[in-house]
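Private note to self, pasted from the team thread so I don't lose it. Backbone tokens:
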């Protein structure tokens, strides 16, 4: 790679595009970029890597004369810089396309795995390709991708990765290495304004995790069937000597695979009462299982015990998926379990932000009703009868549209009190949460919300803050107010 090769990234401060910027810089490219909101922490991280950042999308940036403009999916028609790129017929590509063509392919690397007895053995040369391990699903992508990358790292495989969060075992969200293995969070969101396919169709994974599949991204997809079609496109890209690791509890994923699959499939999470994806009745094979004592099984044989700090059934399923994918890359299950015992999770996944006067404040990324329910349930199992005060900001595009509002009361049932921030919502949060009665409080002003939470909190309470955004710094405000 010649040092003078130059890319200019539009929308560089998003987690995904910022990760591409870091990987490109590490690979020897000159990297510059712009965004509408250039601010810490992403701006600080990028500038520390020698990446020049420009505020806004002014057409004067054309004077940089990069070899290619890399376009994030926050950029739309009407953007002044993008319009001039189009008018002048300058070269451009989406982030996923650029990553696939310049990082995931085009390298001569050799990979040999040393799988245990009974596992899939691989000894081959990956000419021009990384061995991509892609993690797709409505929930748990960031956590599962982090688990998988950590298992490979713990096994000495030194993987590259691109993750939509910061795994605490690594302290960074993206890196490139000389290893043939590259782990990526395979997002179903659309690629760019000029490519409405899901990002993950560009990655061509050899190992693909289908973690779960529910309706989400209502601003992009009209219904669940449309998302299933995109997942089917992903399955179509997995080679015959690859592996699909799929959640055996999900009817939606069963439909995806029934539409055609040309690769081996290993299911996880199945039980004796799980209906077969092919309609063959209950008790259909073994796959990957975990019992109530956290013993892990594959094809009915115990592999070891999962011993870690994480909470919730969803994380147990994430672990099974990561163990299965790592085994395909040659990591014995026992070694994978040892890695997970040292896994520190991702920032903003049940992250304790502080404890004041016996009151603990957590930060979590949950924003879809299913994720909210599993997060609350996981905390409930940990804290027993202690009070849980759930604090929610319905901020995602899907939640802002109100598509999921009727499912919110059920997702919050296990919380003792619920506090909802309704600022800038286009639907009636008070009406939606009415089934919770006096257990729910809705406020349109963030400071008022902080006041009522602080007034209600007592020593021993667990305050669970859930949002996919910064939530106006509510965690710090709560800790200060409680003190």
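Design output:
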């Amino acid at each position: 790679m010649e040092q003078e090769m130059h890319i200019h990234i539009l929308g560089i401060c998003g987690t995904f595009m910022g990760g591409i910027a870091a990987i490109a810089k590490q690979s020897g490219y000159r990297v510059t970029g712009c965004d509408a909101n250039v601010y810490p922490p992403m701006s600080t991280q990028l500038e520390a890597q020698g990446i020049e950042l420009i505020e806004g999308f002014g057409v004067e940036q054309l004077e940089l004369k990069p070899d290619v403009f890399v376009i994030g999916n926050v950029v739309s028609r009407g953007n002044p810089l993008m319009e001039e790129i189009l008018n002048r017929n300058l070269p451009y590509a989406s982030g996923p396309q650029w990553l696939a063509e310049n990082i995931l392919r085009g390298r001569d690397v050799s990979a040999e795995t040393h799988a245990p007895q009974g596992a899939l053995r691989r000894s081959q040369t990956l000419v021009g390709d990384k061995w991509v391990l892609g993690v797709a699903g409505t929930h748990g992508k960031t956590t599962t991708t982090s688990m998988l990358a950590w298992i490979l790292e713990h096994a000495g495989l030194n993987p590259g990765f691109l993750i939509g969060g910061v795994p605490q075992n690594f302290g960074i969200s993206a890196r490139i290495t000389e290893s043939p293995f590259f782990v990526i969070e395979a997002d179903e969101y659309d690629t760019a304004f000029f490519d409405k396919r899901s990002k993950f169709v560009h990655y061509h994974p050899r190992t693909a995790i289908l973690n779960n599949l529910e309706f989400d991204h209502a601003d992009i997809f009209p219904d669940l069937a449309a998302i299933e079609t995109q997942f089917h496109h992903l399955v179509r890209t997995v080679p015959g000597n690859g592996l699909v690791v799929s959640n055996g509890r999900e009817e939606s994923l069963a439909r995806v695979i029934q539409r055609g699959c040309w690769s081996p499939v290993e299911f996880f999470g199945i039980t004796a009462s799980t209906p077969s994806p092919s309609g063959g009745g209950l008790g259909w094979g073994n796959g990957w299982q975990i019992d109530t004592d956290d013993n892990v099984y594959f094809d009915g044989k115990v592999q070891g015990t999962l011993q870690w700090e994480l909470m919730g059934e969803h994380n147990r399923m994430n672990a099974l998926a990561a163990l299965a994918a790592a085994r395909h890359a040659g990591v014995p299950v026992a070694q994978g379990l040892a890695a997970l015992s040292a896994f520190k999770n991702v920032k903003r996944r049940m992250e304790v932000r502080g404890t004041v006067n016996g009151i603990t404040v957590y930060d979590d990324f949950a924003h879809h009703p299913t994720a909210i329910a599993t997060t609350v349930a996981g905390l409930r199992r940990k804290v027993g009868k202690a009070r849980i005060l759930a604090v929610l900001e319905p901020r995602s595009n899907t939640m802002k549209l109100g598509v999921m509002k009727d499912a919110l009361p059920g997702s919050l049932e296990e919380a003792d009190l619920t506090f909802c921030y309704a600022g800038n919502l286009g639907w009636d949060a008070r009406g939606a949460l009415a089934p919770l009665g006096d257990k729910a409080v809705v406020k349109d002003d963030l400071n008022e919300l902080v006041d009522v939470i602080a007034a209600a909190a007592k020593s021993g309470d667990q305050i669970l803050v859930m949002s996919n955004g910064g939530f106006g710094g509510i965690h710090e405000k709560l800790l200060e107010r409680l003190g």
